[in-house]
Amino acid sequence: MNRAELRAHLVRTMIAGDVATPRQNNLSHYRKMSDRKPYYLFGLELQKPWSFEDVLAMMVEKCGVDPDPGHFYGDDTIDPDLTIDALDAMADRLRLAAERRERVVLATGHPSGILPIHLAVGRALRARGCRILTPAAGWSYEVGTSDGPRWREIRYVEGVAMLNTGGSLFHTHDAAPMEAMLAELAAESSDWPDLAIADHGWAGAAGQAGIDTVGFADCNDPALFAGEAEGKIAVVVPLDDNVSPQHYSEVAAYLLARSELIA
What we know:
This protein has nine helices and eleven strands. The chain is globular, with a radius of gyration of 17 Å. The protein has one domain. A hairpin with a 2-residue loop joins β6 and β7 (160-165). It is of the alpha/beta class.
């Protein structure tokens, strides 16, 4: 799949272009990040003041959302060319990881969405001699839900960390699981990651810890883009992170071909 074909696929499947993320949700998240609400910072300690206006302008530049501050309702946009540019930059970093046979952690807060990309990248890096780290398997903590407190634990699927309870995998923005993974690795001292491939708080916590981090973020997740702007995150790919999982197969194939991890 070349760039033009991928661009058409992104727009057709609404991974980019006109996306289903509500504009009012985007603006609400931008304001909450600018107000330094912890849930919307993804574990990052941002240095810039980041007013609401700063966040919107940054998201226009990095994600391609509508620049009109008076656009309150309806859906928003992600520029598919920015998506592909970021995939190309991520591919460069994956190629380097394979050449160096680096130690890598993979994690996602969207097991019902972009998990296929993480799985494909993990398999390809492992085949090229990279070591996929799986620290803190089974680590658990209590989270608040609409039904009251619930326990969540780290579970790995082919080396990709996610949150689990019983037979269910969960969406999460939390940074705490990645912080637990890195705490275990720091205690062992010999297996600190060279690279993190992640999203949401998994990516934010890794970037905050100084790990070279590449990842994915929707247009309602401004913190990772702010982290990229401040140099804490190496690459953030803007995309809708929760369309039907099969639509990400083409994204993964493009990424692996550009990184030369597959022929």
